[in-house]
Amino acid sequence: MLPLVKTSLPEKDVLMPALEEVLYSGYIAQGQVVEDFERKFEKYIGSGYTLSLNSGTAALHIALILAGVKEGDEVISTALTAEPTNVVIKMVGAKVRWADIDMNTGTLCPKSVENLITEKTKAILFVDYAGIPANISEFQRISKQYNIPVIEDAAHALGAKFKGKCLGSFFPYTVYSFQAIKHLTTIDGGALQIQDKDLYDKAKKIRWFGLDKGVSRLENDIKFQGYKYHMNNVNACVGILQLDRIEGVVNTYIENGKYLDEQLKGIEGIEILKYYPDSEPSYWLYTLRVKKNRQKLIDKMTANGIMASELHKRNDLHTFLNDYPTSLPNLDIFYSEMLHLPCGWWVTKEDCDKMVSLIKEGW
Ligand SMILES: *Cc1c(COP(=O)(O)O)cnc(C)c1O
Fold first, then answer.
1. 227 — pLDDT class (breaks 50, 70, 90)
2. 196, 215, 242 - which closes a domain
């Protein structure tokens, strides 16, 4: 079965000697290797400071803390995402306000967000769902106009670009995940890309109990709540080797995605997505809309060895996350029509052609 997601690791003869060296170096906690990974990731993104962490969830949590979101506040978010995006809002005691999505992309609709802004709104959290950059220029406008910080959850979108630049350049906080099935995995891990140096320094303390790593334990004075969220040298070692090969990995997703966009155009019963101007998706999942009998198409693909399906449960169906049950007509339609196809590094051009001809045959 051609899977929808798959873990990509460096070759054994590259990974194992490097890992062995770190494992028996006597320093497996957060040290120089983590530092090296952060500086290398910064270079890859090309803007801001990288705070490496033990998960993308930790990155989202710290972003909300830095944005000043507190108990009783509201964060406007999307229901079309993985659970971490919205669980973290509850971790800081805030409430989730659901905005609707844009039918063209499945990402959060700026107009819908704008209509929900009140004095309780302390942050807007959007997701580049399935690797498609959301409407970045509109969210920049809204952030400026209403003076509300925007957090970008780019966990699906490493390698995606807007105006030729990597995501991580456009908002004060951008979240990446290095979990097992993301474009780049460090086994588990994450990063928060931060634009402001002072906030970056504060975030380093939040990541480590509120302690300043540059000062001896006895001279330290904890002044606010911190956590144990840092990355260690072992995961960072994997991350460094992954960065050496990330360009090639990401490019296979993008080439397959573009090829499917091209080949699936104009087929009866299918609608391909319409990306925003100047945006370049990194197609973590290939996403399309099926206008009739979606289940029949899923069954047909499965019978032919291709895993085609949805991946996430819409988050407003989780009781704990559904603070304000909201009518989301676009999401209702999109969620009932959306289908993901595999398009990552393990998918060949022959696989793409097979998927296209199966769809062209009809279902
Ligand atoms: C994977 C993911 C995260 C972060 O997950 P971690 O497993 O904590 O790294 C956040 N948001 C989305 C949309 C994700 O898919």
1. very high
2. 242
